[in-house]
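Input protein
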Amino acid sequence: MAIGGTTITAAAFGVDESANTIYLGDGVGAGSTTLTFKSDAGADTGNLLYNTDDQFQFSGGDVVIDQDLTVTGGDLLGSSGENIDLGEATAVTTTFYIGGTGELTLAAAALAPF
């Protein structure tokens, strides 16, 4: 099924039931592809975007994870340089950054200033 195009891969919305695949966004229009969720009779909304920087972006609501979370990229990045390096810069060591400066390290045998 294709809506907004003649083929499912080029349509704004497409479903390939045999492949268990749903397509959202045609890849042609400028800007992000946005999926909007509504609750409470439309009073509350939140968006899941695939933006033009090839990132998934949540907006309009918090994200709750009720199972384990695996991070494979090595870093948790804050907007103002409050970051956590999960062993990427120094193996088996977690480094905490404040304002972009290393402040604290946590290794198997020690918690120490950076």
User: Anything to note?
Assistant: The longest strand covers residues 33-39. The two ends are 57 Å apart (CA to CA). Residues 2 and 106 are 52 Å apart (CA to CA).
